[in-house]
């Protein structure tokens, strides 16, 4: 897509460059290679495999900052093998079997932060972020993890798969790491295995068709910086992005009350109460908060990411 600046634009934030050519890559490593070769000026996603080298490659032309993005493992609550009160123990146990601190450091070189709620630290100022809400369920505890999974009836069929789209985001690396963590805790090398789907389009079709048979990768990038946007679209009954089809009347009631509140403080408190139900039932496992990452060429200056991890293209200077 080729975008060009319009000289007649009447607003105060006129573009500082003549235009932007946007390129779509099916492999973020190829994009990074093109940046190094001088064939690309800006990448808005540094692949996990390059994070060890990016600071030496780019120096101060590498950006890493918090963004309104969270990564989760969502369960297909429409599948009886994963739904029900007893299975909540299994879901909680799986969460406790994931060594988030080790994965975020080794795989992502500290560009992710272990999640302890279902929102994002960028909501701290607005009051929606609740650090620690997930409690023990988001703490690595092999002994309790094994006990909970056993108490909940064990993994369905003794084995689980984590489905992910293989075409973007370096997902294979961290999914394999999560499975390795679970397998180590359960002392079974075959307890968990990654299940790649070739393209994001096919992946979305499987989610829409309720064809997931185990936990699957789910990421959320906020549309606007409010706690409502992290909860209602993903966990309200019948919501547009509720891909796990979680449904709870108490959660829905609290969301409705929060939306009807006459003051922001009351609304935020209502959404916080609703989020506590997620902590009880674990329809999705919070994994980590994602930082926005970008790298740019020597031709550019004044490159910045907004709170959505999107480059502010109009402010970039060329030359």
UniProtKB/TrEMBL annotation:
The record ties this protein, via InterPro entries, to:
SBP_5, SBP_5_dom
Q: What GO biological process terms does the UniProt entry carry, in alphabetical order?
A: peptide transport
| Sequence ranges assigned to domain Solute-binding protein family in this UniProt record | 2-241
Q: Name one GO molecular function term.
A: peptide transmembrane transporter activity
Q: Which domain of life is it from?
A: Bacteria
- Record's PANTHER family? ABC TRANSPORTER SUBSTRATE-BINDING PROTEIN (PTHR30290:SF83), PERIPLASMIC BINDING COMPONENT OF ABC TRANSPORTER (PTHR30290)
- Tell me what this protein is called: Solute-binding protein family 5 domain-containing protein
């Amino acid at each position: 897509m080729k975008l060009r600046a319009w000289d007649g634009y009447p607003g105060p934030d006129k573009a500082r460059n003549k235009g932007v050519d946007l390129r779509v890559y099916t492999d973020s490593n190829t994009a990074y290679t093109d940046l190094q070769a001088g064939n690309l000026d800006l990448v808005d996603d540094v692949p996990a495999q390059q994070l060890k080298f990016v600071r030496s490659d780019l120096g101060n032309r590498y950006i890493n900052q918090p963004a309104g993005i969270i990564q989760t493992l969502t369960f297909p609550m429409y599948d009886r093998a994963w739904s029900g009160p007893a299975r909540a123990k299994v879901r909680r146990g799986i969460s406790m079997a994931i060594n988030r601190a080790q994965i975020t450091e080794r795989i992502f070189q500290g560009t992710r932060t272990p999640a302890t709620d279902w929102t994002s630290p960028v909501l701290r100022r607005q009051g929606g972020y609740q650090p620690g809400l997930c409690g023990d369920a988001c703490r690595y505890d092999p002994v309790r993890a094994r006990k909970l999974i056993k108490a909940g009836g064990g993994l369905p069929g003794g084995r689980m798969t984590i489905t992910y789209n293989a075409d973007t985001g370096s997902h294979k690396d961290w999914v394999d790491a999560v499975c390795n963590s679970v397998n180590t805790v359960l002392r079974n090398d075959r307890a968990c295995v990654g299940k790649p789907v070739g393209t994001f389009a096919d992946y979305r079709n499987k989610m829409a068709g309720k064809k997931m048979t185990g936990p699957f990768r789910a990421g959320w990038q906020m549309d606007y910086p409010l706690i409502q946007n992290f909860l209602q679209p993903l966990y309200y009954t019948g919501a547009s992005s509720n891909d796990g089809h979680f449904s709870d009347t108490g959660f829905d009631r609290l969301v409705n009350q929060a939306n009807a509140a006459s003051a922001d403080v009351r609304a935020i408190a209502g959404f916080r109460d609703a989020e506590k139900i997620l902590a009880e039932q674990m329809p999705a496992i919070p994994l980590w908060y994602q930082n926005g990452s970008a790298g740019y060429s020597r031709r550019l200056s004044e490159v910045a990411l907004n709170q959505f991890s999107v480059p502010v293209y109009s402010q970039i200077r060329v030359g």
